[in-house]
């Protein structure tokens, strides 16, 4: 893992560095909110699955006790051993070395790591928890799976998407998800068997499951409200930091819109509609008054148009390179043919 920032900038670049730091801090806040929403999505699905099962008679007081966090019978420890083999395949990969042990923030000179990563995780910690015999051990395979995902999510969150550690984490996560997809039917089969045992009275009725789900639903709702408040704060901060766009910048922005591809132009109009619901994006002719748009919309359009035009330029450059290469090949072929003809002349 590499430090997020390089050497300190000279004093003359203090202002740009300050702006860049604000941008990095803002991006990390957004990444943190995205990570939290991913967790909340899984929680919501768990709540929905539970009440769907209860609605169809497979959940509730009896069926609900054997869910993801219930007390599993003899089948689950066997699944954990099998899952251990899957983990060994992942940890034996050549790109797994950064994730085997806890991040050494001292030797890596990354003092901000624990401020950004609030739930550190690594494979050695997972292994130790799997081997524990007390109440702090894993109770089911899904918990281990969640911690494996956390390892790679942390690495991708702390390192930007061009960093080698980020790319290694992304690649290994894809490999793990592929293996998990093949392993999942075994987990679901064991969970189903456990529920059937409980429904027959083999396992004790677990009423605490419904209580836990109700608490999970309430906590999730509270966290969603917190995220909404945080998003609103970030929106206000961005609006506050946006300077007013000059007339010349608006003119250039309008010219840039005219050079967008049809698909990108539709996306740009959707950006306008987000801040102005009455704006008609599907009309045959669209009259876009730059002076009537909010500063937030203008700056969002500016960044979008710049990226879209850069993409179009790269594509065009690639085609030109291909055309030039093809022309060179044709010229070389003609030259060789002409040379052969000259040699054949008496």
UniProtKB/TrEMBL annotation:
Residues 235-316 form the NET domain. Residues 1-20 are annotated as: Disordered. Keywords: Bromodomain, Transcription, Transcription regulation. The lineage of its organism: Eukaryota, Viridiplantae, Streptophyta, Embryophyta, Tracheophyta. The keyword Transcription regulation applies. Residues 91-166 form the Bromo domain. PANTHER family: OSJNBA0053K19.4 PROTEIN (PTHR45926). Pfam families: BET (PF17035), Bromodomain (PF00439). SUPFAM superfamilies: Bromodomain. InterPro entries: Bromodomain, Bromodomain-like_sf, NET_dom, NET_sf. This is Transcription factor GTE1. Gene3D superfamilies: 1.20.1270.220, Bromodomain-like.
């Amino acid at each position: 893992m590499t430090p997020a920032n390089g050497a300190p900038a000279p004093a003359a670049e203090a202002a740009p560095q300050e702006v860049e730091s604000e941008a990095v801090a803002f991006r990390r806040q957004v990444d943190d909110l995205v990570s939290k929403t991913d967790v909340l999505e899984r929680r919501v699905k768990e709540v929905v699955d539970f009440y769907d099962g209860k609605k169809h008679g497979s959940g509730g007081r009896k069926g609900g006790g054997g869910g993801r966090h219930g007390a599993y019978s003899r089948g689950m420890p066997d699944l954990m051993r099998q899952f251990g083999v899957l983990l060994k395949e992942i940890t034996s990969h050549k790109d797994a070395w950064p994730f085997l042990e806890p991040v050494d923030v001292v030797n890596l000179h990354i003092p901000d790591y624990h401020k950004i990563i609030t739930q550190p995780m690594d494979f050695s910690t997972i292994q130790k928890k799997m081997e524990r015999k007390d109440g702090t051990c894993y109770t089911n395979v899904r918990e281990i799976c969640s911690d494996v995902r956390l390892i790679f999510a942390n690495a991708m969150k702390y390192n930007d998407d061009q960093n080698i550690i980020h790319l290694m984490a992304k690649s290994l996560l894809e490999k793990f998800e592929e293996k998990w997809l093949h392993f999942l039917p075994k987990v679901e089969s064991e969970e189903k068997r456990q529920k059937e045992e409980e429904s027959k009275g083999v396992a004790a009725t677990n009423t605490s499951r419904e209580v836990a789900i109700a608490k999970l639903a309430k906590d999730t709702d509270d966290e969603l409200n917190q995220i909404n408040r945080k998003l609103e704060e970030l929106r206000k901060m961005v609006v506050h930091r946006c300077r007013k766009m000059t007339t010349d910048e608006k003119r250039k922005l309008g010219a840039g819109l005219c050079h967008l591809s049809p698909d990108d132009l539709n996306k740009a109009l959707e950006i306008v509609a987000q801040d102005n619901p009455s704006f008609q994006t599907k009309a045959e002719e669209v009259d876009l008054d730059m002076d009537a748009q909010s500063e937030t919309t203008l700056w969002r359009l500016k960044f979008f148009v710049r990226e879209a035009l850069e993409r179009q330029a790269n594509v065009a450059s690639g085609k030109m390179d291909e055309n030039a290469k093809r022309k060179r090949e044709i010229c070389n072929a003609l030259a060789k043919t002409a040379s052969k003809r000259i040699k054949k002349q008496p």
